[in-house]
Each structure stands twice: as C-alpha cells, then as structure tokens.
Design brief:
Layout lengths: L1 E3 L3 E4 L8 E5 L2 E6 L4 E5 L3 E5 L4 E5 L6 E9 L2 E7 L4 E5 L2 E4 L1 H4 L16 E7 L5 E6 L3 E4 L7 E2 L8 E7 L2 E9 L2 E5 L7 E3 L7 E7 L7 E6 L9 E5 L7 E2 L17 E3 L5 E5 L2 E5 L7 E5 L6 E2 L1
Antiparallel strand pairs: 1-2, 1-28, 2-3, 4-5, 5-6, 6-7, 8-9, 9-10, 10-11, 12-13, 13-14, 14-15, 16-17, 17-18, 18-19, 20-21, 21-22, 22-23, 24-25, 25-26, 26-27
Length: 303
C-alpha cells in the first residue's frame, strides 16, 4: 500500500513489513496497481515506481492534481483529475487533456460553495472499461470507454459528491458518499437509492468497497465540513440498507472528518483507515480494528 503525509510517501504491509519511505515531497495524489505505484506531486510531476526501479516524469499539467487512477499497466496508462475540473490521460510517457470531458454541456452547473472552481475529486473504475469521476461540486460523470467519452449519471443523487467507489465483483454497482450520506446505483449510475438509514449525521466523505463482496462497504459521516465535525466510521453488509457504527478498536468519534482517501480495502480483503497520525487495519470486514503504525505527521491519504 501507499501512505502519504504532507511531506513523505511510505510503502509497506504487503509482507507484513513496516512501511518504508520511498519519497519526500509535496504529495497531491496516489494510485497503486498490481505492478506500479504512482505518486502525483504538487509540482505536476509523477513519481512512478515498481519493486525494482523508479522514475520521475513531468506531465506539463498546470492545474492542481486532485486524484489518479490506473486503468492499464502494460503499458502504464492513467487518468489524472485536476482542479478547474479537467481530466488528463497519461499514456506510456505522454500526457494529453481529455477534450470530451471539457466539452460536457453540464459544466456550467458545477460550482463550489466558496466560489472557487470545482475539482475532479475522485475516480472509480469497473473491470470492463467504465470510469466514474465525481465533481466537487457537480455530481458524477461516467465513461463507458476508459475515459475517451463522458456523460453525466442520472442526477437523482445529491450533487455534492465527496468520493465515488465501485466493486470488482459487480460492474453494475456504484457507490457515492455525499453531503447527504451514501447513494447506491445498481445500474451504473442510471438510477440511485439513498442509503442513509441508521446514520446519526448525513455529511459523508470517504467510502470503500470490499474486493470480494459488493454489499460490504465502509463509509464515514460527520456533522459537517467545519468545526467540531464529530467524524465517525460505519460499515454495512447489505449495500447500505443498514449501517453499524464501528467502535471496536477504532475511535468512536473524532473531532474532524475522516476524509476522502482515508479508508480503503486491500486486495486480500483487509480494511485500512487513517486517523490523524495513526493507521488502523481490520481483518474481519471492518468490524474490529487494530493500530498498526504511527506516522511522524498526519496521514493525508492512503491507497
């Protein structure tokens, strides 16, 4: 896995080894595949490494990079989401902006509450070539051809989306955690169900899906984006129809949000979560947790 603080990136835990630092710099986004680990720096460069080698590649991207996703590794191809709501494609060493995304007619409806330009906040992909990009703020856009062409999902979910997630076991299933909690689609975003029953608060941030069970999902909620947000972690075994507050070995409530990219599942089904400087893991689908590592600084994201 990859673990980023504001100044460093660590990798570890594949063989139960403690994390080791692989990079120092201002980190913008992370992505991990079977072979490649990719770190986007705030300079716009990509740090790309395998078990045996690494390189730094300039992208020429002017906007702030917000998220990454790997959609092919032979050769390496990425989608890169940025501020001002653009998507770039990195294809075997070359980077170009995805013009079809810039031409979406719904772009004039995207906004931020503070008046700045909206961002592409997160990506999710299926095994058969669909990609989802959530806009903060502007709902979710989808592509059926690995990011070549784009269209909006059906807009019957809250448009303030903070993370989108998919299941490797069910290409039709899509999850979104929003400012009104979790929404679920079973038809690739054509229709949505609001799954908020059981949450004490509705302001959602992070979401993650078990690699072998599309109904097993983790999500974080809080009172809101600022102040004493009272962030909490919840889990569901029925696609969000019911939710269970996670407290076994994990903080029941933290003062702030448990943010986008702070929870994840690894391929072996272990769950991971970062709270402040502490990394937690769970081997029983998120029911009980244990501390496994303390960083020197606050953890900003994991992959």
């Amino acid at each position: 896995m990859l673990i980023a603080t504001s100044r460093t990136v660590h990798t570890g835990f594949e063989d139960q080894a403690a994390p080791v630092q692989i990079l120092e710099g201002d980190v913008a986004a992370l992505a991990k595949g079977e072979v490649y680990r990719v770190v986007a720096l705030k300079s716009g460069d990509l740090f790309i490494c395998t078990e045996t080698e690494s390189q730094t590649v300039a992208t020429g991207i002017d906007q702030d990079i917000e998220c990454l996703i790997i959609f092919d590794e032979e050769p390496l191809r990425l989608l890169i989401g940025t501020g001002e709501s653009h998507i770039y494609c990195y294809d075997d060493g070359k980077t170009h902006r995805v013009e079809s995304f810039d031409q979406l007619s719904v772009r004039d409806k995207w906004y931020t509450p503070w008046g700045g330009p909206p961002d592409v906040r997160s990506f999710a992909r299926t095994t058969d070539g669909w990609v989802y990009a959530d806009i903060h703020v502007g709902s979710i856009m989808r592509s059926a051809d690995w990011g070549e062409t784009w269209e909006p999902v059906t807009p019957d979910l809250h448009d303030d989306v903070h993370q989108v997630a998919t299941s490797p076991r069910d290409d039709d299933r899509v999850y979104a955690n929003t400012a009104r909690a979790v929404y679920v689609s079973d038809d690739r975003g054509r229709s949505w169900s609001h799954r908020s029953e059981g949450f004490p608060y509705y302001y959602g941030r992070a979401i993650a899906v078990h690699p072998d069970d599309p109904d097993c999902v983790l999500a974080t909620v809080s009172k809101g984006p600022h102040g004493e947000a009272s962030g909490q972690l919840y889990r569901s075994d029925d696609a969000g129809s019911t939710w269970e507050h996670v407290t076994a070995g994990f903080p029941g409530t933290v003062p702030h949000n448990i943010d986008t990219f702070h929870i994840a599942f690894s391929k072996d089904g272990c769950a991971w979560a970062a709270v402040d400087k502490t990394l937690y893991t769970s081997e029983d689908r998120g029911r009980s947790w244990a501390r496994v590592w303390e960083a020197q600084e606050k953890i900003r994201m994991i992959a």
